[in-house]
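Input record, target 12 of the design panel.
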């Protein structure tokens, strides 16, 4: 089998998310003016962190599946033949080529991260509103 290839399908979103997260961290004093903006940027940062975790776990799985399949290429010629084809090798090949979940993780990660960070924003907004109402009552 060939050497392990890093799939750019996963690397590019991870790098972009890390750059955005670093930019938010470095410019936090300029972009956060009030509590609502602070809540938005915290939720967006949380979105990026969850997204990075989802996509990087898919990257890890892909690299592991490639490595696992490469273990069965005994003569390192890049092809499987003869005694190299076993039930374990076929299972490893199936895990590598049946990658719909890994491939679409860049999209499902957006959806899942968006839902979680939206929930965080709404809960934070509710808490802020509750604090403001309590303060006005006094």
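The sequence produced for target 12 reads:
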């Amino acid at each position: 089998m060939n050497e392990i290839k890093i799939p750019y399908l996963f690397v590019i979103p991870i790098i972009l998310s890390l750059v955005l997260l670093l930019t938010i961290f470095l410019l936090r004093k300029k972009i956060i003016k009030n509590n609502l903006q602070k809540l938005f940027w915290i939720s967006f940062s949380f979105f990026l962190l969850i997204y990075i975790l989802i996509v990087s776990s898919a990257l890890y799985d892909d690299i592991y599946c490639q490595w696992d399949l490469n273990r069965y290429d005994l003569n390192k010629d890049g092809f499987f033949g003869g005694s190299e084809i076993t039930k374990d090798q076929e299972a490893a090949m199936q895990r590598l080529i049946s990658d719909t979940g890994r491939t679409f993780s860049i999209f499902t990660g957006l959806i899942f991260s968006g839902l979680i960070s939206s929930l965080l924003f709404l809960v934070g907004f509710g808490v802020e509103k509750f604090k403001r109402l309590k303060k006005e009552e006094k």
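The mean pLDDT is 88.
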